[in-house]
Amino acid sequence: MPSTVARPPYRNAFVVMTIAVIMASIFAVSYTLALDRPTPHHIPAALVGDRVGHVALVRAFDAATNGGVDLRPYASLARARRAIDEQRIYGALVLTDHRPRMLVASAAGTSVARVLEQAAQQVPAATGGPVKVVDLHPLPPTDPQGLASFYVTIAATILGFVTMFQLRANAAGLSLRAWLACILILATVGGLVLALITDPFLRALRGPFGELWAAIAAEISAAALFNSAMLTLIGRWAIVPTWGLFIAIGNAASGGAVAPPLLPVFYRFVGRFLPNGATVETIRNAVYFTHHQHLEPILVEAAWIIGAFAVLMLAARIRGRTPAGE
Questions:
Q1: Helices 110-122 + 55-64 axis angle, to 10
Q2: For residue 38, what are the contacts with CB-CB under 8 A and spacing of at least 6?
């Protein structure tokens, strides 16, 4: 009998390369749209003092930000400072002193603080300026741009889903229970190692170590469980939704590189409900606003972990296979 010669999988190679190019293009477009041209969009800020008596100054400040700052009247300086501490506002224009002041919080978003500071410096002396800038929550020398939380979140995300692909490729015989055990171990150990690197080793994030560890472990879990669910549902093509959600959109919308008030409307909205943004905010609050941790990002992260776990269990039952491909 004549031997059958298998044709080289040219078609499969073409499909893989095409999808890879498309994914890279989406990544480039997403990051360029979200991060390349940060523009103020209704940055919440306080106005303490007499607006009527400083009309020219307020107008000059508004013009310097192209109307991008939403100045809300606050009855006292103490209330404005508390609102900044609780991250309900990003700054405060104080007109009660002899010299006007702009209170900012670099730790809440260095990009927003920079916008407010530049606007304060552009106020002409004829209107009552220049405005003195006071940073209530400055960033440390070890993290001068406030990007450490963003970088460690990216590392945790990649660790979570890349490891799942490697498990599928090199440990195909794992049962669903063993697979889940691997995710638990990965999240625990990976979160610990990344927390040790960023806190005591590099000293980039100096905060409650337990909270930092838990936040990083939660991000690893969310990425790993989501990818596991996709592996069960669509197999090797799980890279497409995982990359799109966590990398192309999730990281760009996280507020880690550019604060939410400077992002386009779409990214500003979805960033609140994606695990990347939740992790960045949780880490930032734990490190720089220790006594004002927000509940919303913690609930968002928990919802993604529980939801991805539920989808994984349901998909395994319906499809009759595990993320390992069996």
A1: 130
A2: 111, 258, 262, 263
Q: How many helices (H) and strands (E) does the chain have?
A: 11, 5
Cα gap 230→200, rounded to integer Å: 36
Ramachandran bin of 221, using left for φ above 0, alpha for ψ from -120 to 50, beta for the remaining angles: alpha
Mention every residue, 6+ apart, whose C-beta is less than 8 A from residue 212: 195, 198, 199, 205, 283, 286, 287
- At what angle are helices 296-319 and 209-234 packed, to 10 degrees? 30
Low-confidence ranges of the chain (pLDDT < 70): 1-7, 125-126, 128-129, 326
For position 11, what pLDDT does the model report?
Answer: 83
Determine the residue type at 134. V
φ, ψ for residue 46 (rounded to 5)? -95, 150
H helices within 197-250, ranges in order?
209-234, 239-242
pLDDT digits (tens, 9 = 90+) for 101-147: 999 999 999 999 999 999 988 888 667 667 899 999 999 998 999 99
Distance separating alpha carbons of residues 318 and 321, to the nearest angstrom: 8
Q: Identify the bridge partners of residue 134 per DSSP, sorted by sequence position.
A: 103
- Rounded Cα distance between 115 and 111, Å, is 6
Question: DSSP letter string over 71-120?
Answer: EEEES-HHHHHHHHHTTS-SEEEE-SSSS-EEEE-GGG-HHHHHHHHHHH
